[in-house]
Each structure stands twice: as structure tokens, then as C-alpha cells.
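Researcher: Sequence recovery benchmark, item below. Answer with residues only.
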């Protein structure tokens, strides 16, 4: 006698109830996120902008000094020396003088005034600024005393 062939038991683990539950969970999460964004764009806007301003435009003075290096006997090998250096932005200087309607003579007078303050030759400073007129950085003096 032949035995009838039967189908194997269903190995599908798909559950319509479980899929519905996951879909509802995702929709609720998405809805909460949409509501949060809507709140931040409307009622919470002022508070969010205030936080952003505080984070972006905070000024702090940092006193970062390097430490002294000692040898094994406690004798100082290397230390820090604090100096002041004066830099000028020639492009900004020229642009500002042009916007204010001042001439190159006024610029030369300002350079001469600066040269008098730092005890340098005005012609040398004018030449440095003229040579690097499109630059954003010119070192004018080192070890400047306050």
C-alpha cells in the first residue's frame, strides 16, 4: 500500500499581528518626531535661537601657557617666554580706507603714526604693506612692549 504524501508543516513564521504592531510603533515614532519638529519651528523657536546664539558667540579668554620642562634632577631645561607680536591685515586696511572715502595719503599718515608708536621706519612699513597688498597677514613688529 502506498502511503499518502502530506505537506510539511508550515514553517512560515510571519505573523500579521506582529507586523501590524511593528508598523504602528514606527508610525507613532515618526508622528512624535514630526510633532517635535513642528514645536521647535513654532513655539520653541525663540528658545532654540537663544541657545544657538549662546553656543556660537561665546567669548572666553584662555590662558594657555606651556609648562616648564625639568630634567631628572629638577633643573629647568626649557621654559616659556611670553612676547607680543604686531600683525597687520593690509587688504582690510586698504578696503576700510576706501570705504571711508579716505585717500592713500591718509593711509600713509596712519602708517607713519603706527611706525612712531613701535619705533620703526615708516617707509619700511609702507613698503612691507605695499609688497603684500592683497595679503591678509603681515608681521610688522616682534617683541612689542605694552
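Model:
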Amino acid at each position: 500500500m502506498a502511503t499518502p504524501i502530506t505537506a510539511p508543516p508550515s514553517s512560515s513564521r510571519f505573523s500579521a499581528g506582529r507586523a501590524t504592531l511593528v508598523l504602528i510603533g514606527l508610525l507613532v515614532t515618526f508622528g512624535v518626531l514630526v510633532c517635535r519638529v513642528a514645536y521647535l519651528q513654532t513655539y520653541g523657536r525663540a528658545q532654540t535661537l537663544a541657545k544657538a546664539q549662546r553656543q556660537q558667540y561665546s567669548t572666553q579668554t584662555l590662558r594657555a601657557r606651556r609648562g616648564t620642562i625639568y630634567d631628572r634632577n629638577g633643573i629647568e631645561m626649557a621654559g616659556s617666554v611670553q612676547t607680543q607680536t604686531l600683525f597687520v591685515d593690509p587688504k582690510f586696511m586698504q578696503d576700510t580706507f576706501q570705504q571711508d572715502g579716505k585717500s592713500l595719503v591718509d593711509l600713509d599718515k596712519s602708517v607713519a603714526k603706527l611706525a612712531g608708536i613701535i619705533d620703526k621706519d615708516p617707509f619700511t612699513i609702507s613698503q612691507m604693506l605695499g609688497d603684500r597688498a592683497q595679503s591678509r597677514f603681515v608681521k610688522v613688529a616682534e617683541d612689542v612692549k605694552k
